[in-house]
Amino acid sequence: MAGSYLLNENAEKMVKKLKNQGYPKAKSVVFSSSQYHSVVAAQFSSQAKAQEASADLKRKGIDSFVKSK
Q1: Half-sphere exposure of residue 60, counting CA atoms within 13 Å on the CB side?
Q2: What tens digit of pLDDT does each residue of 2-31 get?
Q3: pLDDT reported for residue 33
Q4: Is residue 64 part of a domain?
Q5: Does residue 28 lie within any of the structural domains?
Q6: How far is CA 11 from CA 21, 45, 53, in A?
Q7: Domain contains 36
Q8: What is the dihedral sign for C-alpha 52, 56, 58, 59?
Q9: Where is 4: in which H helix or E strand?
């Protein structure tokens, strides 16, 4: 997760930034119990890979965290 925005426009700006940073599958989603547009940088099959990606984003100045299903 790389952000949560009330306005879709702001979420889409972050999606574009992530795609430019090497995360081509970045997308904005609205979870069922939320009114916010959450930005997902990528999805991974393992917790370890997700943590590596989160660390990479943080090195690039993008605050992020891993959200488990």
Answers
A1: 17
A2: 999 999 999 999 999 999 999 999 999 998
A3: 86
A4: no
A5: yes
A6: 15, 24, 19
A7: yes
A8: positive
A9: strand 4-5
Task: From 22, 13, 28, 16, select the one nearest 52 (Cα to Cα).
Answer: 22
Identify the residue with better confidence: 69 or 25: 25
Nearest Cα neighbor of 68 from 44, 52, 37 is 44
DSSP secondary structure, 17-63, as one string: HHHHTT-TT-EEE--TT-SSEEEE----SSHHHHHHHHHHHHHTT--
Residue with tokens 């891993």: 66
Residues 6+ apart with CB under 8 A from 62: 2, 17, 18, 21, 41
Domain count along the chain: 1
